[in-house]
Amino acid sequence: MSGLGTTPRGPGFVSPQLEPGVPTDPPASAGPAGGSGRGRWLVAGLATIGVSVAGGALAGGWAGDRAAGDPAPAAAGPPPATAAPAPTGGVPGDLVGAAATALPGVVSVRAGAAGGSGFVIDAQGHVITNNHVVAGATNVSVVGGDGRRRPAEVVGRDPGSDIAVLRVASAEGLRPLAFAAGSPRVGEPVLAVGSPLGLSGTVTAGIVSALDRQVRLGAGVRRAAIQTDASINPGNSGGPLVNARGEVVGVNTAIATLEGGGNIGIGFAIPVERARSAAQQIISSGG
Question: Which letter does DSSP use for residue 213 in this model?
């Protein structure tokens, strides 16, 4: 696929261990995102590889059957002493249901030659994405799971939190996603939903690896982020990280790389409360 770019672009994310003394969580009015990359930096740009494929789809499946001659399972007995405790907190393990809930509200974002992801948050057609996805773009549109392309206006941007809000004229066929109440738990299953490398409607599974992980956004300040091992790649920026109920717990925004490589199992998401607060402020002041 020669149409894919090779160098992700976007604000830099730097490991706090490599940059001691950088201030943490300044006011949201921090300056525009920027930054440069070097080996073992955590870099964003998840959404900004341009995809020139005009149309198409990738599909795949796995199937497995138990052999007809397999012996019947042994009679049930007491669980072994090493059995894991039953999950608590009411979070189901049905990620298939979570994907079915989330996918109708997730869109691919087209911003000039760049692309990313976003998700609908209300019946008025407001869409949350990353600021670095649409920064500098004059022609923005979104494509939903129905394949319909909708023009979108940029309601406003908050470079300090890397959140932007778009609005489409008609949200028909797009299902707003619900925000989770409170923070996720370490070890909780999550899905990253979006359009990595332009492959719309992609879902990848993982867990919450850590909370309050301090990483530096391109504005040059550290902010607490959710760390996850759900596979996040260029094009996922702005898409939701959802729990097993399909509720948004974060906005995917960055990955860790080694020497400019791809996903290595360490990704970061803006916590939902910060993303929601930034979005509400943008909407109230700009539309």
Answer: E
Say if residue 176 is exposed, middle or buried (CB neighbours under 10 Å; 0-12, 13-18, 19+). Answer: middle
pLDDT reading at 43 higher than 60: no
In contact, 117 and 239? CB cutoff 8 Å:
yes
Question: Residues 6 or more apart from 132 whose CB is under 8 A from it?
Answer: 10, 11, 33, 44, 45, 47, 48, 162, 218, 237, 253
Q: What is the pLDDT of residues 213-238, one digit of tens each?
A: 888 765 667 889 999 999 998 899 99
Q: What is the span of the domain harbouring residue 129?
A: 9-48+92-287
Residue 5: closest CA among 59, 32, 45, 39: 45
Q: What is the pTM of this model?
A: 0.69
Q: Does any domain span residue 64?
A: no
Arithmetic mean of pLDDT over the chain: 73
Comparing 38-47, 88-97, 158-167, the range with the smallest average pLDDT is 38-47
Q: Do 249 and 226 form a contact (C-beta atoms < 8 A)?
A: yes
Q: Is residue 149 part of a domain?
A: yes
- Tokens read off for 101: 């809930």
pLDDT of residue 186: 94
Q: Is residue 222 part of a domain?
A: yes
Residues classed as catalytic? 132, 162, 237
Confidence of residue 11 (pLDDT cuts 50, 70, 90): very low
Q: Which residues contact 122 (CB under 8 A, 6 or more apart)?
A: 171, 176
Q: Give the CATH number of the domain where residue 267 resides.
A: 2.40.10.120
Distance of CA 248 to the CA centre of its chain: 10
| Number of folded domains that form the chain | 1
Q: Which residues contact 83 (CB under 8 A, 6 or more apart)?
A: none
Residue 72 lies in a domain: no
Q: Is the pLDDT of residue 282 over 70?
A: yes
pLDDT of residue 99: 93
